[in-house]
Design a protein that fits this description.
Mean pLDDT: 96
Radius of gyration: 21 Å
Low-confidence stretches: 1-7
Order of helices and strands: HHEHEHEHEHEHEHEHEHHHHEHHHEEH
Helix content: 40-55%
Structural class: alpha/beta
Shape: globular
Strand content: 5-15%
Number of helices: 17
Number of strands: 11
Largest sheet: 11 strands, mixed
Oligomer: single chain
Length: 482
Amino acid sequence: MESLHRKERTDKEKLWNWTAEELAHGIKTGLISSREAVMSSLNRIQEVNPRINALVEVSEKEALEAADEADRKVAEGGSLGPLHGVPVSIKVNIDQKGHATTNGVVDLQDNIALTDSPQVANLRKAGAIFVGRSNTPAFSFRWFTDNELHGKTLNPWNAKKTPGGSSGGAAASVASGMVPVALGNDIGGSVRYPAYACGVAGIRPTVGRIPSWNDSDQQDKPLSNQIMSVQGPLAHTISDLRLAFASMIGFDPRDPVSTPVTLKEEPLKRPIHVGLLRDVGVAKPTDAVNAALDEAAVKLRSAGYIVEEIELPLLAEAYRLWYLLCLGDFRQKMPLLEQSGDRGILKALKHYSAVAEEWWGPNPDLKDFMKGYARRGTLIAQLQQFLEDCPLILLPVSATQAFDQDADITSIESMRHVVSVQWPMTSIPTLGFPGITVPTSVVDGLPAGVQIIGRRFREDTLFEAADVIEAHTERVTPIDPN
């Protein structure tokens, strides 16, 4: 079945409603200009951004100059990149030359980047036009997007619900039609969860697939950051997601784990087996989440996939391990957090730590970390062996739909709930595998969706399965903020 999203565009009305693929095609063929596309994006930003605060910096002059240059290149008939002339947003924790990498922190508001990070440089080479910078929580370490420098980002579906975090501004900027593609990053769900909460698609690539480095950081990267953190795009459609992903990959020597791997390998042997994983004994999925999983399973079966329910308790262990390894590294920044952090991150960290203490004690020592990293290797090997026979796993993004705003800082008990239902968000980064978020429906006024994970460096298989789910699903964004 042909995707419901991919009709040929013939009019120029509401260019902000076009996909990145449609815009790039229209610009290359002369149907539209990049200036028209960028002006439409900027007008949409002016219309809806004041209501949700997704973009905290808008680069109108810079973007229009870049759009005019893009149109000159079209007129000259030269080689054009896959995102030539297409408006994109960049998260404020990523270096973009000439702009402040604030990471949502007041003390970093003058932290001007002198160079582009690798992923931004790659998007620029692909022809993308940067129209604005998206919001994040302070230090990018919450599933909620709020900070004392830039303020709170609202979910365009429901202002009382989180847009997700830490790439909440990125997701909200796509969902509300400000841009067709946004750049975010993910160490514990920061691309996948905001995409889910806002009803768009997002991918967490394999560690090392998309290069990353911020010269503005001026400090060594913690080990957990090196082996868990990734850069990834968010978009309305899987096709746009694939286009942005392909534009961002490539080796960069600044990134210690950057890995030059071919984009697509030999096709999987068919029929492809998919494991349907609902729960790992941590948090039972809600009816809406179960329905989304059932719906996605039916669509995959109709395309010839063999979908069978599985149990995979190793992911429960990986979920808890994240709170030793990743949270442990983050807590080493406590002097900096006490100096520069805001109320939200300090309270969230207190609550994270209270939950983690139930598993790892109040003061994990070097032996605990050594055992944790040793166990991580064993779990990676176990998951890789499982994926040999069942190369894809269909599972929740979260065990529930979008949280109420500030559910993580309301109380330790509310944080305990947040942590438990987010087990799919933290278990996957712990082990370094790729995952993709696919919208499926709208339930009770909020988006629902699923996640697919697979073998390392086999994002192509995730895109193919996601295509199947999307092809039978009505596109729900862009929307006007409620």
